[in-house]
Amino acid sequence: IGNTVLHILVLQPNKTFACHMYSLILSYDRTKEGSGSLELIPNNEGLSPFKLAGVEGNTVMFQYLMQKRKQNLWSFGPVSTVLYDITEIDSWAEDQSFLELIVSTKKREARQILDLTPVKELVSLKWNMYGRPYFCFLALFYILYMVCFTMCCVYRPLKPRTGNRTSSRDNTVYIQKMLQESYVAYEDELRLVGELITVIGAIVILVLEIPDILRVGAAKYFGQTILGGPFHIIVITYACMILVTMVMRLTSTTGEVVPMSFALVLGWCNVMYFARGFQMLGPFTIMIQKMIFGDLMRFCWLMAVVILGFASAFYIIFQTENPENLGQFYNYPMSLFTTFELFLTIIDGPANYDVDLPFMYSVVYFAFAIIATLLMLNLLIAMMGDTHWRVAHEQDELWRAQVVATTVMLERKLPRCLWPRSGICGREFGLGDRWYLRIEDRVDPNKHKMMRYTEAFKAQDRDNCDKGSEKLEANRDASCKKELSALSLSRSTSRTSSHRGWEILRRNT
């Protein structure tokens, strides 16, 4: 029951009341240490009160709980050294990492905890010491891997076509070689080495991605932008295309250019994932993802309807005309593609002034230009501008969340010998087996002086209150009227003294 009440208090909107009640309940806890403590018992979702405060974005409760966990090591003037307990914060030995919970939640308030002590210092330590060097090395290795795959595609086995052309529009001069003809010369053996590297890399990608999908869940793994959801879809699809290309090559099936071209596009687009390691480029990847999966996806439905309607109209208009004089609409698939190019203003309206064009072509093209170019494209630009404005206000916050997600990902995938545990073991200071992060806190001298003034004035107020209470005790047997007047005088004296002290402090500041 006590643990349930603690979880309810974390969700309370009145933060001050929740902190006082939280402390009151823990004062009655007889098992404050060990696994039986109320603070360490998880709820049905596996969240302790501390983790729940982070997921809900309750910064007041989080700071209150961190103040309870810290240990003051030493203090000298404005400089002090504090040990913060990072047992539940550090993702080293946690199946459900606190940092991963924060970046995967949909509440913006939760990401503000990444800027609080000691989370900010812990993430900065992990990223600067291990995360950034490993991530840059991984980016360089992936680019070299993609260069190898691209060279294998450029020099894929082809041979001249020997058969006759079936139509005047047939432009094919090379065809794919059979498996027995593909690996004969020395250049073919070099290409085989590159192809083996490409296939092994695709298998490694699938081996690394599938366990995370099963652990996190497909909806959260692919749907969270901070976790790199769209890029996970891209890299898994790329690996599948590589395996499909390999099967088609081994079975001598024609048409390997289809999965190979898809793999080239997806593989090079995945390079943008590594932009999150740089503060200048990281927020732009978030912006691109939100535009593609937010604005552009909704716009594509409208664009498809417009293109389908006008392409059908253009095909019907030119269905009776000679395709040699105006061949952009000679069949229905070509009409769809030409209308798509017209929609994006890639080409101008097709016209041949040597022949007479149908009258309805001018009417339909006029309506298409007004709706597509002037209306819908400007609507898309306005939608993207709004998304850019919204993301620009959160770019620093989003980049920190990207860094945290990347750090947790690298820490889980790399061997323990390459990523030692951060912090200091509590046994060095007689604090048990918990791990702590050592942080030096430096207070501004003017601020330190102001705090001393404040404490002095608070002490003066307490002395006045004590004197007033002593006077009340001395005059307990007096009449009610005298007692009330003495109480009023005591309060007015305390209020006047406090007011005078704060006026002095305000002028000095």
Automatic annotation (TrEMBL):
Its main location: membrane. Residues 135-394 form the Ion transport domain. Keywords: ANK repeat, Membrane, Metal-binding, Phosphoprotein, Repeat, Transmembrane, Transmembrane helix. Coiled coil: none annotated. GO terms for molecular function: calcium channel activity; metal ion binding. This is TRPV5 protein. InterPro entries: Ankyrin_rpt-contain_sf (IPR036770), Ion_trans_dom (IPR005821), TRPV (IPR024862), TRPV5 (IPR008346), TRPV5/TRPV6 (IPR008344). GO terms for cellular component: plasma membrane. It is found in: Membrane. The chain crosses the membrane at residues 134-158, 192-210, 231-251, 257-275, 296-318, 359-381. It is a multi-pass membrane protein. It comes from Peucedramus taeniatus. GO terms for biological process: calcium ion import across plasma membrane.
